Amino acid sequence: xxxxxPDLATRGGPKYLAIADAISDAVSSGDLSPGEKLPPQRNLxxxxxxxxxxxxxxxxxxxxxxxxxxxxxxxxxxxxDEPDAASVFVSSEPTGTNVFDFTHATPVAGAAGKKLARTxxxxxxxxxxxxxxxxxxxxxxxxxxxxxxxxxxxxxxxKTSTERVALTNGAQHGVLVALMSVTQPGDTxxxxxxxxxxxxxxxxxxGVRLEPAPIxxxxxxxxxxxxxxxxxxxxALYCMPALQNPTTAVMPEERRRQVAEIARRHKLFILEDxxxxxxxxxxxxxxxxxxxxxxxxxxxxxxxxxxxxxxxYILAPDDHIQALRTTVRICNWMTAPLMAEVARRWITDGTxxxxxxxxxxxxxxxxxxxxxxxxxxxxxxxxxxxHFWLELPSPWRGTEFAAVAESRGVRVLTGETFVVGRQAAxxxxxxxxxxxxxxxxxxxxxxxxxxxxxxxGGIGPAVI
Length: 464
Fold this sequence. Notes:
Layout: H1 15-29, H2 41-48, H3 52-64, E1 68-71, E2 75-78, E3 100-101, H4 112-124, H5 142-156, E4 165-168, H6 170-182, E5 188-192, H7 197-206, E6 209-213, E7 215-216, E8 219-220, H8 222-232, E9 236-239, H9 253-265, E10 269-273, H10 277-280, E11 295-300, E12 312-315, H11 321-332, H12 337-349, H13 351-374, E13 387-391, H14 398-407, E14 410-411, E15 413-414, E16 428-432, H15 439-454
Parallel strand pairs: 3-14, 5-6, 5-9, 9-10, 10-11
Antiparallel strand pairs: 1-2, 4-12, 7-8, 11-12, 13-16, 15-16
């Protein structure tokens, strides 16, 4: 292990970037040679007087630049000279910022890349992979549809068959094509009064009216949904019974049964978005189990396996599957066969279960930190979610709190983002815990939010 120590005296900007720049300069000058082991993070933090989280971010930045490689239990080692820009793999991560971004409800990154490399190598070794490079006339190969049916059956216990499954480019695309299949401009659709923003934007683009359906801490309220159906003559209902976004509510089985009965009575189509279901690990039967003839069960792999795996599946009623597949063709013809093949392999060879288990462990680890840091403010937390909901204490308003948080380097989404229609937005924020690269980053950001919440605020300037 080297005794190298960065000199930060003449370096400005965020400390973690200064340390990463120092590593880069040392590699270029030869002060750090290929194969040398950098000081343990905790030791270096103590020696130069910074936090452990700062050193962790610095080493991650150096790894992103291709300067070092770290292995749990072994340490961080120098790879060699800083590579030319043309040889560096494109990264979507911003550089030169010191912002803790909690605005995204995404899975934790870091586990899927090595699995993807192995799977792609196995695919490339096959003697004939032309099928993965060709147009798919039926929007998907039979084995890829079968994998979707297997995934739905495994995670929900629903009876499935390939004849009822459509392949999509993720669940968001699935919601789009399901809406296009059952609605026309001017139709009314219902959604939970606080809902996933994607459905709000889709409804606007398709020219359909979106009406809010009242919810409580267990999701849709059946009695009020029934009344709303009678008033609006709605065509469809969009809902998330498992780990609802943004509230993380899980709808009890009896309510799911009641929602299905209401849909039958009012001839309402149900768009059941189960994108979080595979991660939640819930054993409750979905609404689609109680009203299969009216339900479009929509799911995907991005939340529980890898965000870049844009493969989704819809389990549709028998008499709507062909119209649904036609709509898929209209939108984008087909899901990329290579991605669908990766998904198939991960579903069938155990990789998907391994990644899902890894995501659940990371989610629970991060939610424990959230509970420890913000617990006294009573956040609504589900241990398997990658986001949680926090109603702000008085006198804070959502927009004011978000502005103060932004000034401190923390980004959050306020209740306004999730409100359906023109109802008053709750003074609340959604905090995404999966997007920060490390647990240390998450905890630093949450501690900043706690400091803000502990400080009296939320009162605007006096005016005459």
